[in-house]
Write a structure and sequence with these properties.
Layout (H helix, E strand, L loop, with lengths): L8 H5 L3 E4 L8 H14 L4 E5 L5 H5 L12 H9 L6 E5 L2 E4 L8 H12 L6 H10 L4 E5 L5 H10 L2 E6 L3 H20 L4 E10 L4 H15 L10 E2 L2 H10 L3 H10 L3 H7 L10 H25 L14
Helix pairs in contact: 2-13, 6-7, 7-8, 8-9, 11-13
The protein binds adenosine-5'-diphosphate (ADP) and magnesium ion (MG).
The site of magnesium ion has 4 residues, from helix 2.
Length: 319
């Protein structure tokens, strides 16, 4: 079994754990977790991504599906079953580790149902218990939550300090958010430190300001009061999203590759048939960068307000 943390030590270890949550699928949870984690790691922060999805889309976005490190969720399942600390796969990118998701997580739901019956909602603390012993190795930890899976999302909400919620401005996205608001209130009964870090509008057309206003008012309703929201929105860019999953590359990696590819006329002259990477990758990468800066300053502002409990965290290396 994991060593029992001193009172308060578990919470301090978990104070940079951010759950990326929305009950609706397709609103950008996985893209945000992967790209923010990837860019933070690229900037020198030690970063961990935890994938709670049975479909493990993070494996596609980071390009490790089917590779040796891809245990399809077996390690995460075993840790929750035995209480042994998580053992993240190291360096999917420099400074970026992952706890893989996948089909093995299907066995987690019945285990949690039985624990809930015996121990009540406190059973949801299991993920935090196995994460806390390794959490100190990282400056930021993102949990990529699944859609429509109460139990796995509740595990994340009971372990995280922060919720980052992507949403689209359509009705479906807003409905998912209302459900999260209800869960969020329940999770705070066992995890009183849980806070909403902010809401991000994802894949929203730049001309959709009016709809965005409505969306944000609905978010305030759902969380009861004015919710923190990030100014940055991630632009709608289908080709970049397709390039990303096809190649297993993050937006800022595509940005570098797009800049290095031969000019289109050279390809036309040489008769090359390789698929070109969309130049929009640079703009999307810029959106994630701007969001990353906002996320870090929101974390730092909250931590400064709570000093001296917090320790200072800075990137360990310069890229
Ligand atoms: N900037 C973008 N514009 C349009 N579509 C995007 C963008 N980024 C990602 N996508 C696509 O949107 C879909 C949902 O994104 P994803 O991050 O998987 O959402 P979730 O994890 O909430 O289900 C995916 O097919 C993804 O490729
Ligand atoms: Mg996802």
């Amino acid at each position: 079994m994991a060593k029992r943390a001193k009172p308060g030590a578990r919470e301090t270890a978990l104070d940079r754990v951010v759950a990326v949550v929305n009950d609706k699928g397709g609103v950008g949870k996985t893209s945000l977790a992967a790209n923010l984690g990837g860019q933070f790691a690229g900037a020198g922060y030690r970063c961990l991504l935890i994938d709670l999805n049975r479909q493990a889309n993070l494996a596609d976005d980071l390009g490790y599906r089917g590779q040796d490190i891809d245990d399809e969720g077996a390690g995460l399942l075993a840790s929750i079953l035995t209480g042994a600390p998580l053992r993240p796969a190291q360096d999917v990118r420099p400074q970026l580790d992952v706890v893989c998701g996948g089909s093995r997580l299907e066995d987690l739901t019945p285990v949690m149902v039985s624990r809930l019956q015996h121990h009540g909602r406190g059973a949801f603390r299991a993920l935090g218990d196995v994460l806390a012993p390794v959490a100190g190795d990282y400056e930021v930890i993102f949990i990529d939550c699944p859609p429509e899976s109460t139990i796995l999302t509740d595990l994340a909400l009971a372990s995280a300090r922060w919720v980052l919620m992507p949403t689209k401005s359509d009705l479906g996205g807003l409905l998912g958010m209302t459900l999260v608001a209800e869960r969020f209130a329940l999770a705070r009964e066992i995890n009183p430190g849980l806070r909403l870090l902010g809401v991000v509008l994802f894949a929203t057309g730049t001309g959709a300001r009016a709809i965005q206003g409505e969306a944000l008012a609905a978010i305030d309703d759902a969380f009861g009061g004015t919710s923190p929201r990030f100014e940055t929105t991630i632009r709608h860019a289908e080709r970049t999203a397709q390039d990303a999953r096809r190649l297993g590359k993050l937006a800022h990696e595509l940005e570098v590759e797009a800049a290095a590819q031969p000019a289109w006329w050279e390809e036309l002259r040489s008769g090359s048939r390789t698929k070109r990477i969309s130049a929009t990758a640079a703009s999307v990468a810029g959106d994630y960068r701007a969001l990353g800066v906002e996320v870090l300053s929101a974390l730092q502002a909250a931590e400064n307000a709570e000093k001296p409990r917090r320790r200072a965290r800075r990137p360990r290396t310069t890229p």
